[in-house]
Amino acid sequence: MNRFVESSDWVPKGDIILESAAENAVKSNQHLLVVAGPGAGKTELLAQKTDYLFQTNLSKNPRKILAISFKKDAADNLKERIVKRYGNEYGSRFSSLTYDAFSKRVLDQFRTALPEGLIPQKNYLVEDENIIESVFSKHFQGFSQLEKKSKKSTIDNALYKNMKSDIWIDLLRDSEYNKACLTFKMINILATRIIITNPKIKDLLQMTYSHVFLDEFQDTTDLQYDLVKACFLNGDSIVTAVGDNKQRIMEWAGARKTIFLDFQRDFNSDKVSLIMNHRSAPRLVDLQKRMYESLGENELEAHSSDNWSFDDGEIKLFISSDEKAEAERIVPDIVKKYL
């Protein structure tokens, strides 16, 4: 890229019109929390922000942008959108990873920076249930007879409170009984330990990534947030966290309930709320608002895109005895409207 533009001259790409709050989020060069509901265009905002940062040279070559998502499909979708719209010139400077992939990259690249007793075998396996069960059965009598939920609780209590335990030693190293095997949470803990105890590695990460995007932020766990803080708190990488506090579906998996407030406090970030729903017609948005009210939630601040007419959208209620009866009612209705 040879020509750069001033911030005031930059325009969104792909015939996209950004609401004013979204444009402010794109152009912000401070730590930022973006709260956005369903259909608000969270992925599109990050794609446009990538273009803005490269076009205005706020992310100077050879520095890159790092995007971290909770799920692999979200990470892949964002990367594909960047490459498809802007080409490999952007794609080569845009890393889109899950938290698990990012922590594993840190561990694999810098594992020898760990204390000798915590360095895992180089070609360790990941989440091999047979090996993990074998190791825990060695240390906990009756482990193999436990229910799945009880096994998980036992593993969590044993692994994530004492890194010097015999179980850690058995999992970190090959033995005559099994190969080295780590869980993703162990990898996260080790990656965080690497960054905390090696300031030069933290500096290297921040030199590599001028900006960091945290997608699906509402699903972030305590361990994942610890890694984010270890890597990017009190540095010059600019962090943008994007999430929807109405879509917290991962609390059962340990999602941090106070993650938005914690991020604003820890990173001293600004906050922007997107209210436009590009996906849903006005009648559907109105139903969503009423549903939130009926569930005792705070009022949903959202409105439909101007591309919709005021009375667009249709809501029907079908009551069926089973899935087959449901399909027999719904399919003809869809065929009638769209085929």
UniProtKB/TrEMBL annotation:
Record's protein name: UvrD-like helicase ATP-binding domain-containing protein
One GO MF term: hydrolase activity
CDD domains the record matches: DEXQc_UvrD (cd17932)
Stored InterPro entries: DNA_helicase_UvrD/REP, P-loop_NTPase, UvrD-like_ATP-bd
GO biological process, one term: recombinational repair
Keywords: ATP-binding, Helicase, Hydrolase, Nucleotide-binding
Residue ranges annotated for the UvrD-like helicase ATP-binding domain, each copy included: 15-281
Classification via Pfam families: UvrD-helicase
Residues that hold ATP according to the record: A36, G37, P38, G39, A40, G41, K42, T43
Keyword Iron-sulfur attached: no
UniProt cross-references to PROSITE patterns, sorted A to Z: UVRD_HELICASE_ATP_BIND
Gene3D superfamilies (UniProt xref): P-loop containing nucleotide triphosphate hydrolases
